[in-house]
Amino acid sequence: MHNILLSLLIWIPIIGGGLVLFTGNDKNAKQARVIGLIVSCLTLLLCIPLVRGFDPHIYTMQFRETVVWIPAYNINYDIGIDGISLTLILLTAFTTFIVILSSWKTIRIRVAQFMAAFLIMQGLMIGVFAAIDSILFYVFWEGILIPMYLSIGIWGSVNRSYASIKFFLYTFFGSAIMLVALLYLYSQSGSFSILSFYEVKLSQSAQNWIFLAFFLAFAVKVPMWPVHTWLPDAHTEAPAGGSVVLAALMLKMGVYGFLRFSLPIVPDACRSLDWLIILLSLIAIAYIGLVAIAQQDMKKLIAYSSIAHMGFATLGCFMIFKIIDKTGNLGDAYMSLEGGMVQMISHAFSSGAMFVVVGILYDKLHTRLIGDYGGVANKMPILAAFFMLFAMANVGLPGTSGFVGEFMVILSGIQASFWITFFAATTLILSASYTLWMYKRVFFGKVANDNVESLTDIRGLDILVFSLLGFMTLFLGIYPQAVLNLLHTTIGHLLDISTYTKLVSL
Amino acid sequence: MNLSAQQLSFIVILAPLLGSLFTGFLGKALGTKASHRIAVTGLGIAFIAALFLCHAITFGNTPPRSFNIYTWALSGTFQFNIGFTLDSLSTIMAVLVTFISFLVHIYSIGYMAGDPGYQRFFSYISLFTFAMLLLVLSNNFLQLFIGWEGVGLVSYLLIGFWFKRDSANAGSFKAFIVNRIGDFGFLLGIALVLAYFGTLNYEQVFAEIPVLANATIRLFPGTDWSLITVICILLFIGAMGKSAQMPLHVWLPESMEGPTPISALIHAATMVTAGIFMICRMSPLYEHSPTALSVVLVVGATGALFTGLIGIVQYDIKRVVAYSTLSQLGYMVAGLGASAYSASLFHLATHACFKALLFLGAGSVIMGMHHDQDMRNMGGLRRYMPITYTTFLIGSLALAAIPPFAGYYSKDAIIEAIGLTQIPGATYAYICVLLGAFVTALYTFRAFFLVFHTQERMDEHTREHLHESPSVVWLPLVCLAVPSIVLGFLFIKPMLYTEPGLLGSSVITLPAYDVLSKMAEEYHGIAAATWQGLLGAPFWLSVFGIFCAWYAYQKAPETPAKLARRFSIFYRILVNKYGFDDFNQTVIVRSVRNLSSWFYFIVDTKCIDNYVVNGTGRMISFLSRLTRQAQTGYLYHYAFVMILGVLIFLCWLMI
Q1: Listed residue (A241, A182, A192, A246) closest to A217, CA to CA
Q2: Which pick of A27, A380, B109, B429 has the fewest CB atoms within 10 Å?
Q3: Torsion of CA B357, B363, B367, B373, to 10 degrees
Q4: A159 touches chain B (CB under 8 A)
Q5: How far is B210 from chain A (nearest CA, A)?
């Protein structure tokens, strides 16, 4: 089983998703839910042999499977994972499990289709993180758009069609350009394997063009300023589960792209254009942080806060050149990249959990506006306590996962430049301002109106969901070494190849 | 039973954590009685363990030690550990924290009785104690920061404990944000430490100092600043937030919205002392930066005088004590600036006792007054609450630095040290702290007379129910009154004037700044020191302050109003607290909000989303509408265009 483990992880959810569709209409909603749960449990269980079989001390791709797919163009079904892929795959399996549990009661129409969409999305997502052939990667990458588009368009709220179209066009536009870059790289290397792209020598100008093509695709996904405006709309209109997948997984695809493609394939372009990403990341942190303060809609606020937090991930990825230039020591740059990775993972827990909370509130009162709430803690103390934990993780409080990534990136930054750290650290004040101000207006105070009066506290299943998320948040905050251990060798290798020039010597 | 220092330190830190987890998660099931028993027992165990630990390390033969517990993160060249330092500084702090916290736990049984959030309250204060212990026992900057922010979190939760009150929510939010502004600087300081020293472990950092003592850093083009000065000032910004130094002091008065036991525990005795503790811990760094010492000295002394002045015009009993806390913290910080670390820590310890006493005493008064905190409605309470009265008097005398009460010895040492130090700003600081002595006595005894003497001003209903508080409330008062009397004369010699002092090698003073050893030469036993104090200026200024308070509020109660009219400008400045709150509210908060709305509505929504993103969509549909015009469907239109095309083509061929 060992050698097809990855395939199982990709295809069990996809086939399972197809099977769920056969339960048909909502009369069999219960069956659909149970099948969905079983499938996601199964993938979660399959992660156990994956972690146990993974050797964190080698950087080469593990669990490799290669099958010829389209021999004429040298396209293969080629999958395998390293530390970065592994952590993101674990995150995907965990998040889907959470989404299915948290949608148990809140999704009441087209349940089978909903379960199918999210299971298929899970399989495709794992495919993205495992693909070594770039065409296979591209297929998975674009494939995800369809179930996500449908989930916003079908289960979304009032303005869903605008948001879903915007989401689709925005992200599709970016990735179409990426395809051009992939084709060019194929013409240079004669293979679509990403690993063979790593070997190709490229001139500076070719690298710059490829960098820009990748940049457009990935920056939209992250999203980075100024191509971020699809995210607040998509988040607000998506159902809670959709928001969770968007925040916890889909945004990570962008940073994953930077790590898998940009840094190792066009290292010299990354080195010469790193200022661009650093600048945009700092804008995301400081400017978007300020924008978040002005939000009246809870989901929009969390969406903007997501953008600001992802700024740390991209910042961490692209500071490495400046750090190495300054200190001359490769070892100093680890913390920057690893901080970016940890930030991605921790952001999945905190913002994912916050979206689940808002989903629960929305399900009861059908409004996301902060002004329609007030004093919720009086009626829902357990929910309030959990939300406080996740809000604090969002604020980056030490002891929660949110602290680790920010801390590592901020501390790395000062080796590159004092001012990078200075602007990045403004998040300490900004994230506290928008998160706690929202918390104060929604949860504290006297019961604001009759609608809030009618609320009842969460029970059973929801408590389980939040306990799982809360456990992960605290575990990662108290013992981040558990994750860093998986990443270390892979990051080291990535640093090696990203700092090695690929310019053609004349 | 013979426990090693390491095992003891685990007990000290884990007992409060377990107490917090039990009461927090199982509180509802356990009920109120079992909950407070668990929390109090946890703290009791921690206190006893801390005593043993302190005894072994500070007074015994056990050598100070630093050890790691586990590796938090390992990333490239950097390693972050969780670990403890067990030396005299950390163990003395641990005793102090657990002692006050233990008493506050007991006191809360009475004060919080009947509150719907009873178990939650105990969970929070135990958690707070855990975070504070994490901070003081740390052997590295990372854990220091974890504890540092941890106490900030619990303080936020506790100030907003009564979350139905808007004022409590506003206060807690403000406290968190202002503390975060301090932490912003603090984190930058830590980042610089890591970047230049390559480690966050105290011992390793301190060992590297001689190498980097002359290093410079260029933040702006053309400026080369001493690296250590920049680090020290950034760390001090963190301390300004936590220890409420001007201008980051604005959160502390508003933290009085929390339950009174919290004011005693957090906002007098422990959390606010974190900054003082941190600078003591970092003494090897600060000693290498005379500039940073000057900044610390001047900021501290300014706070000592000017926040004290505000205390004179407050009518809320808790706010008076809060402003006095600000002022006393100013003394401690100024003492640090004068390199009198031991004196500041000594004052921290005595202050923790008498300030907790005053706060808890104020809480006892507030309970008696049915939660009315306005001193204008009190008066003559000594007849109804004799124990509270006596203990409050002891606390007031200690605060006003009257010998032989504890505050006298510690505060006098700070004033004397500032008088002796030579660094820039010393003269200004000395004037501030001297005048501060008068101000301290004045506001303290103003409150004392207004509450316990003068005529009774409460309404009939309140008067009928006035009585002494229950034993769980007055017992902690008595327990705190004892050290408020004896701590000073018992410990002044070992703490300040012995070589090596109680703090031993935990703090380091360079010979050039070592004012305490100069003072030690002048020290000839406790009797002589006390007698000398009676002849000194600070003592007479204090006595004069008490006299003024007595005259203005007891003897001739019309005086304050007259003075307020005569010096109405000064009065208004004080009532408006120098305008810090107004400035923050109207300038900073408003401009941040305006900026954020402008960014959101104009830049993000209008420019990016409306013009660029949706504009692209509109442009495409506009272009397609244009081209659609051509598709008319009439054959003769198409024929006409075709002929036109053929004509143009022919012309082009022929030319």
Answers
A1: A182
A2: A27
A3: 130
A4: no
A5: 21
Res. B2 pLDDT band, cuts 50 70 90:
low
**SS3 category, B4:** coil
Q: Which two tokens stand for residue B208?
A: 């590297």
How close A402 comes to chain B (CA, Å)?
Answer: 13
- A191/A471 Cα distance (integer angstroms): 44
What is the number of residues in chain A?
506
As given in the structure block, the two tokens for residue B377 are 């409605």
Question: What's the gap between Cα B203 and its chain centre?
Answer: 25
Measured between alpha carbons, how far is A28 from B10 in angstroms, rounded to an integer? 55
Tell me which chain B residue has its CA closest to the CA of residue A326.
Answer: B195
Alpha-carbon dihedral sign for residues A85, A86, A87, A89 = positive
In three-state secondary structure terms, B79 is: strand
Of these ranges, A150-159, A216-225, B566-575, the one predicted with the greatest mean pLDDT is: A216-225
Instruction: Give the C-alpha separation, B128 to B24, whole Å.
Output: 13
Question: CA dihedral in degrees (A341, A343, A344, A349; nearest 10)?
Answer: 130
What distance in Å separates the CA atoms of residue A494 and residue A282, rounded to the nearest whole number?
Answer: 23
Residue B553 has pLDDT above 70, yes or no: yes
**pTM of the full predicted structure?**
0.89
| Percentage above 90 pLDDT, chain B | 9
How do residues B415-438 score in pLDDT, each as one tens digit?
A: 888 888 888 888 898 888 888 888
Query: Any chain B CB within 8 A of the CB of A429?
Result: yes
Q: Which of B160, B169, B177 sits opposite A433 (nearest CB)?
A: B177
The reply to whether residue A334 touches residue B76, judged by beta carbons under 8 angstroms, is yes
Residue A201: partners with Cβ closer than 8 Å, 6 or more residues away: A502, A503, A504
Token couple for A458: 């969460």
Pick from B75, B190, B194: which is nearest to A338 by CB?
B75
Q: Are A403 and A477 in contact (CB under 8 A)?
A: yes
pLDDT at residue A1, rounded to an integer: 56
CA B527-B530-B532 angle, 5° bins: 105
Report the C-alpha gap between A391 and A376 in whole angstroms.
Answer: 15
Kindly tell me the sign of the dihedral angle through the C-alpha atoms of A38, A40, A44, A50.
positive
Each residue's pLDDT tens digit, B366-390: 888 888 888 888 877 788 888 888 8
Confidence band, pLDDT 50/70/90 cuts, at residue A505: low
Q: Are A468 and A98 in contact (CB under 8 A)?
A: yes
Residue A490: exposure state from Cβ atoms within 10 A (0-12, 13-18, ≥19)? buried
Residue of B68, B71, B75 for testing the chain A interface, max A β-carbons within 10 Å: B75
- As beta bridge partners, residue A131 has A79
Tokens linked to B645: 């095309």
pLDDT tens profile A56-94: 898 888 888 888 888 888 888 989 999 999 999 999 999
For residues B336 and B300, the answer to whether their CB atoms sit within 8 Å is: yes
Contact A77, A69 (CB under 8 A): yes
Q: What is the pLDDT of residues B171-207, one digit of tens each?
A: 888 889 899 999 999 999 999 999 888 888 888 888 8
Check: CB of residue B434 under 8 Å from CB of residue B544: no
pLDDT higher than 80, residue B492: no
Which segment of A161-165, A495-499, B324-328 scores lowest on mean pLDDT?
A161-165
Q: Whose CA is closest to A243, among A284, A300, A295?
A: A300
Q: Say yes or no for a CB contact (<8 Å) between A436 and B173.
A: yes
Q: What secondary structure letter does DSSP report for B404?
A: T
- Pairwise CB contact (< 8 Å): B195 & A415: yes
CB of A190 within 8 Å of a chain B CB? The answer is: no
Kindly state whether A274 is in contact with chain B, defined as any CB-CB distance less than 8 angstroms: no
Task: Tell me the C-alpha distance between A387 and A389, whole Å.
Answer: 5
CA distance B231 to B226: 9
Which residues, in sequence order, are bridge partners of residue B66?
A: B85
